[in-house]
Request: fold
Amino acid sequence: FGGGQRRRVTKGTNLRIRLNLNLREVVEGVDKKIKVRKLVVAEGVTYKTCGACNGSGQVTRISNTILGQMQTSSPCSNCNGTGKIIDKKPSNADQNGMIQKEETVEISIPAGVEDGMQLKVSGKGNAAPSGGVNGDILVVISVEDHLELVRDNSNNLHYDKYISFSQAALGTSVEIPTVSGKVKIKLDSGTQSGKTLRLKGKGVPSVEGYRTGDLLVHINVWTPQKLSKQEKKFLEDCNKSDNFTPQPSKKDKSFFDKVKEMFG
Reply:
């Protein structure tokens, strides 16, 4: 019933950091250099073989039972199963021969990450004593709100564009913000409030890299809240024209049709 002898490999503890990103960094991906304080093995630390287990990391015990002698093995408590104990260490090191040290770590953030997502940087966390392996750095992503663009669960971006009644009636060119700068789009004459324009590929890429969302521009026609006498008289005259009577056709989608199209 004897157990096989195997030296335990210790692992350093993980570090957790929060990394703030703006929307452009999310869309394009980014490399960040950050400073972290971590445990490292102090310079001058030396180890020697544990005398309690002779470097095996295991302590064997033999007990007598009604079935005869039974051999069992368990991790050595003197060296925590590593097979080594500290021989020499500097005065500024802790009992495990470790000290705190600031280190600059480069982290590569892929495009498409989401707020609250956690990434792992292997081997950049706290060091382990006795020649063990380093822990990891766990990076929690925090995405700052954009002033004008809003991301949805489908990696599309949304932007509300307000235009005047005259611009909607006559047609116009307007500037639209994207994460990489402004672009101009043309609005046809007779543009209706609630119309949605789709700019292909101007959204957020998925973190898996299989598709990129779009930028959806929602057109809102601004109704003036104060009118001069002349403006009021002009609009009253316009109301007498059949061109100002709403005549929606089947191609003018309802609010519910637009919701189905957006999320369906």
